[in-house]
UniProtKB/TrEMBL annotation:
Residues 333-347 have a biased composition (Polar residues). The complex is composed of two ATP-binding proteins (WtpC), two transmembrane proteins (WtpB) and a solute-binding protein (WtpA). GO terms for cellular component: plasma membrane. It comes from Halorussus limi. This is Molybdate/tungstate import ATP-binding protein WtpC.
């Protein structure tokens, strides 16, 4: 089962007078993933914590399937909501199995049902149960611990899954692997997901919808394509780095993937493994922005797209090349995530 979450004119002012978010309204439809993204301190975590009532709104209403969450028992509510954070907080004195089974145990599931569920989730997370079930968290890598954290959050079939920078503490390769794995899992679990990140790339990859925040304000709530193709403000344009053209990127590779003379069809053949059958791949031109290319790749669910100029196929631009290039400018975002990872104590 999954649920709809609605924010209706929500403002949160902390006791010290800090306005964390102001007059936020948006709806997360059931079974979809909405990513909250924006610079440090813009109110993403506060918005997420209003859903599991770690924080309460100062004004406005948060609705869970149409019911004001103030009318729901916070303990019951939290058992229906999975929560994954950067510092995953596994219980070190408990085995992997005991960690994953925490909420089903609290909910009074019988042992057979719990055992089956734990094994099913460990399989899903690519951690063979026979090998991992009885291990203790300290014996696991950061990526494995984070997988256990996701399994624990999913254990009792939550209606909603909250994920606050879930992969933020991992090295880039592990992070990307977990993103890919989670995208597959997402299709199987059909849960409503609210996901916080400061990385626009992660947002574009993971979200059905993206909510871009700027100091307490929701500045655009749209699909990844709409964000890329129609940024509604200069802030959003800057945030997604929309001002680069493919020409400027200078990474169009003709030789590696194909002979240019083979033409467009053969490029599509070459990259065809990842092209969903029947889907049309619309090429880009060298003067298109990198965002347009990225947007088309996301639309067609592929990792490379042909660049065509005046009917001639110049080559193929890859998603990696665009992302690599966009990482070049100085960007303070990652420093924040590093400093947040220093404390990894249990909750
Ligand atoms: P980050 O990416 O750094 O985690 P964020 O976008 O998640 O940031 P929040 O953690 O929601 O932002 O914080 C929003 C604002 O509210 C910030 O100015 C922050 O300092 C402030 N804030 C957060 N928690 C509290 C608190 N308990 N008391 C007072 N101010 C707070």
């Amino acid at each position: 089962m999954s649920s709809t979450i609605e924010f209706d004119s929500v403002t949160k002012v902390y006791d010290d007078g800090t306005v964390a978010i102001e007059d936020i309204s948006f709806t997360v439809e059931e079974g979809t993933t909405t990513v909250l993204v924006g610079p440090s301190g813009c109110g993403k975590t506060t918005t997420m914590q209003l859903v599991n009532r770690l924080e309460e709104p100062t004004e406005g209403t948060v609705l869970f399937d149409g019911t004001d969450i103030r009318n729901l028992d916070p303990i019951d509510l939290r058992r229906d909501i999975g929560y994954v954070i950067q510092e995953i907080g596994l219980f070190d004195h408990m085995t992997v199995k005991e960690n994953v089974a925490t909420v089903p145990d609290l909910k009074g599931w019988n042992q057979d049902r719990i055992d089956d569920r734990v094994d099913e989730l460990l399989e899903l997370m690519d951690l063979p149960p026979a090998e991992y079930r009885d291990q203790y968290p300290e014996a696991l890598s950061g990526g494995q611990r984070q997988r256990i954290g996701v399994a624990r959050a999913l254990a009792a079939d939550p209606d909603v899954l909250l994920m606050d920078e879930p992969f933020g503490a991992l090295d880039p390769i592990t992070r990307e692997n977990l993103q890919d794995e989670f995208l597959e899992i997402q299709e199987e679990i059909n849960t409503t997901i609210l996901f916080v990140t400061h990385s626009i790339d992660e947002a574009l990859k993971m979200g059905d919808r993206i909510a871009i925040f700027d100091v307490g304000e929701l500045v655009q709530y749209d699909s990844p394509q709409a964000i890329l193709e129609e940024p509604k403000s200069e802030f959003v344009e800057d945030f997604i780095g929309a001002d680069r053209t493919l020409k400027e990127l200078q990474v169009i590779q003709a030789g590696d993937l194909m002979e240019p003379a083979d033409g467009y069809e053969s490029i599509v053949d070459t990259i065809g493994e990842s092209v969903n059958s029947g889907e049309e791949v619309v090429p880009v031109s060298p003067t298109d922005s990198t965002q347009v290319a990225l947007s088309r790749m996301i639309q067609a669910d592929i990792e490379a797209i042909p660049v065509v100029d005046d009917g001639e196929v110049l080559g193929v631009v890859t998603e990696d090349a665009i992302r690599d290039r966009r990482e070049e400018p100085t960007n303070g975002g990652d420093r924040q995530s590093v400093s947040k990872t220093t404390n990894t104590g249990d909750v």
